[in-house]
Amino acid sequence: MAADLSRLLRPKSIAVIGGGAWCAEVIRQSEKIGFGGDLWPVHPKGGTLEGRTAYQSLDDLPSSPDAAFVGINRYATIDVVGQLAKMNAGGAVCFASGFTEAIGEDIHGAELQTALIEAAAKMPILGPNCYGLINALDGIAIWPDQHGCSRVESGVAILTQSSNIAINLTNQKRGLPIAYVATCGNMAQLNQAQIASAFLDDPRVTAIGLHIEGFTDLRAWEQFAAKAYQNNVPVVALKVGTSGEAQAATISHTASLAGSDAGAHALIQRLGFARVSELSVFLETLKLLHMQGPLPSKNIASISCSGGEASLMADTAFHTRLTFPPLTSAQEADLRNVLGPMVALANPLDYHTYIWRDADTMAKAWSAMMAPDVAMTFSIVDYPHENRSDWACATEAAITARAQTGRAFSVVSSLPELMPDDVARQLIDGGVIPLYGLRDAVEATAAATELTAPQDPPLAIPGHPTAPTVLTEADAKQALRAAGLDTPQSRTVGRRSPLSLSEAAQSLQAPLVLKGQGIAHKTEEGAVRLNLNKEDLESAAAAMPTDSFLIEEMVQGAVAELLLGVTRDAAHGFVLTLAAGGVLAELLEDSTSLLVPSSRVDVKMALSKLKCTKLLAGYRGAPAANIDAILDAVDALQSYVLANTATLEEVEINPLMCTPTRAVAADALIRKEMS
User: What is the reported pLDDT for 105?
Assistant: First the structure.
């Protein structure tokens, strides 16, 4: 059952427990934002706090508080939280530090956090090591420091794992209405997905922004994503930090290709969130989503009175997947009628300054650029700090064009400081999105096109193998063959076997491949020989540093080689990597990642993003690979993973030989815990 945070997020009464400066600030900030409920200071010595008489104990309070700020030391925090839980309080913000975040310095931190969770029981708590929350919709600030929030009627909710970042975000001056801000601290009881889910219960929340240091409880994230999508509330994620689990103690190419961030990126995509990498883009994306919502396509248009700005916009968008569709004949006719014969018509459009100061004519030109298939049209305008009257025409034209077409329109300044606050407010009132800085505007627009429905089915949750071992290649292929993978015909033989290598290979068709088993990187150790006849096997084996051999029929006719690999990532699930394979696997750095399980549709889409996809499609007249056979191979790999979630550490097929008829695993590696 989901935790009920309604009283904590929208309290009618707040107990402020403690007597220090932080507690005094909670009262000041509550009064400043206009909290109309009851504020009850609590301190064993009584007295006053910010002019309010303090109660000496929780038992003296008029009733059970809806919310409490617990601003006392970590030991006393546990006792007070227990008392609040017993008196049926609505929830608490635990400000104290010295819990799990201090384990490296204090061996008692984990024990204290466990005790805090037990004391809270079913009462929701934020933290510990947490600043708390601001509800600017209802005038609530359970917050022990300065902030920049003011009352709003609707807006975005922001949840961070850093109190300092939260403070900084509240002080933005970009025209973004912030409805909620919360910090989650150590997440002792409530994880980030659960807190974010509670924001969705307020219909005044238009979008949610998450600053994420790490994921916990994948099922909670899946539930939150489904709820957000169902409620039509877009989610923006700023993921920082890395997950070392995906790289620790790995021996495959897959791990180095996937990198520490691949799992997080794949998870964010799977949840249907937009991902950004900078705070400024985070804010601009939230503003765009608040005003316009997710964008239906990647088509954009740009208008400016400078050829340099038009070129700059084109170059800025080049590294994204945004596209500038060519003007239609109808658009060209409308623009020519407005702009005259001297202007070269294109998208991006440099309209020169012939119509400057004529707001009505400018609006007609803007409207002509706002085609039905364009998701966002930009007007690049840099407003001076003084004497801006000559620029009022651009503002008026933007608002008029937006009103006439009803389509998404943004005025963007090339530099953030060239968008004045009063102009931004005027644009917002007219339904036009003010965006601060060209690159941030483009990145935010691209992010707003990435929102999708969360993917099904549920993620595979990894186990915790403690002593995984590496299977021989023969055993790995046998296991994968049982899951449906196509592998070469083969034989295994030991150096002391009564059969010679050539005798063991009698039923195999040349050319043959000989491999030494029990060697991690066979090529580097000289333990792989290709294009052999049966009579070549003995001499080839003599130079190999092993006593166990694998003889296989050599796969011929490959048009491309792929790498398919899965690594266990404790934070994100099982990361499925698709990449250019063979000796080029790490050299080309051509890879993409998903999470297990992924559908054939999603896998096919991921394959299309690889640089080597041209080879798969048949490059310069060469035959194409059998894509269905490749998808069958990925399905088989995923089937094996799903059957071994508790024990698997990593599995890799490299290369997968892709021919016009087959997709054959020429090499395979499995590392898992053996029962």
Answer: 67
Per DSSP, the three-state class of 384 is coil
C-alpha separations of 373 from 196, 409, 414 in Å:
33, 13, 25
More confident residue, 386 or 439: 439
For residue 38, what is the enclosing H or E element? strand 38-42
Name the one residue in this structure whose structure tokens are 């399980």. 597
pLDDT at 436 over 70: yes
Query: Distance (Å, rounded) from C-alpha 162 to C-alpha 129?
Result: 10
pLDDT value at position 123? 98
Encoding tokens for residue 265? Answer: 């990126």
Which of the 8 DSSP states describes residue 280? H
Distance of alpha carbon 640 from alpha carbon 622, whole angstroms: 33
Helix (H) or strand (E) holding 290: helix 279-291
Q: With 90 as the cut, is the pLDDT of residue 400 above it?
A: yes
Q: Do residues 134 and 140 lie in contact, with contact meaning Cβ atoms separated by under 8 Å?
A: yes
DSSP SS3 for 302: strand
**C-alpha triplet 203, 206, 212: angle, nearest 5°:** 115
Q: How far is CA 187 from the centre of its chain?
A: 19
pLDDT category at 168 given cuts 50, 70, 90 is: very high
Residue 186 to residues 102, 190, 352, 356, 607, Cα–Cα distance (Å): 10, 9, 55, 55, 38
Average pLDDT value for the chain: 93
Q: How many residues does the chain have?
A: 675
**Model-level pTM greater than 0.70?**
yes
Partnered with residue 411 across adjacent β-strands are: 379, 434
Q: Is 630 exposed, middle or buried (0-12, 13-18, 19+ CB in 10 A)?
A: buried
CA–CA distance, 279 with 174 (Å, rounded to integer) = 12
pLDDT at 525 exceeding the cut of 90? no
CA distance 655 to 580: 9
Q: What is the pLDDT of residues 595-612, one digit of tens each?
A: 999 999 999 999 999 999
Q: Peptide bond preceding 545: is omega within 30 degrees of 0, i.e. cis?
A: no
Question: Structural domains in the chain?
Answer: 6-213 (3.40.50.720), 298-446 (3.40.50.261), 489-553 (3.30.1490.20), 560-672 (3.30.470.20)
**Gyration radius from the chain CA atoms:** 31
Q: 3-state SS of 70-112? A: ECCCHHHHHHHHHHHHHCCCCCEEECCCCCHHHCCCCCCHHHH
pLDDT, tens digit (0-9, with 9 covering 90-100), for 119-155: 999 999 999 999 999 999 999 999 999 999 999 999 9
Query: Residue 28: which pLDDT band, with cuts at 50, 70 and 90?
Result: very high
What is the rounded distance in angstroms from the CA atom of residue 595 to the CA atom of residue 577? 8
Rounded to whole angstroms, the Cα distance separating 419 from 436 reads 6
